[in-house]
Amino acid sequence: SMRNREILDAVGTTAAALSLAGSSFIVLCYLLFRELRKFSFKLVYFLAVAVRASDLGALLDVLSVWMLIA
């Protein structure tokens, strides 16, 4: 039903926003603290950049659906 779709969109949007905030924090820490720029943390950094791109795509997808409905 339409109500279930709205609930799923809200949960997905919330999850994507929280994930975007967390991955942005990782990217910020990597850029601010030079001592974190080791190979192992570099892998985490690139993963966080990829997750940010995925989250932005999810948020834009939900936003485009909302714009079509409105």
Automatic annotation (TrEMBL):
GO terms for cellular component: membrane. It comes from the Eukaryota. InterPro entries: GCR1-cAMP_receptor, GPCR_GCR1_put. It is found in: Membrane. It is a multi-pass membrane protein. The chain crosses the membrane at residues 12-33. Keywords: G-protein coupled receptor, Membrane, Receptor, Transducer, Transmembrane, Transmembrane helix. Gene3D superfamilies: Rhodopsin 7-helix transmembrane proteins. GO terms for molecular function: G protein-coupled receptor activity. This is Uncharacterized protein. It comes from Aegilops tauschii subsp. strangulata.
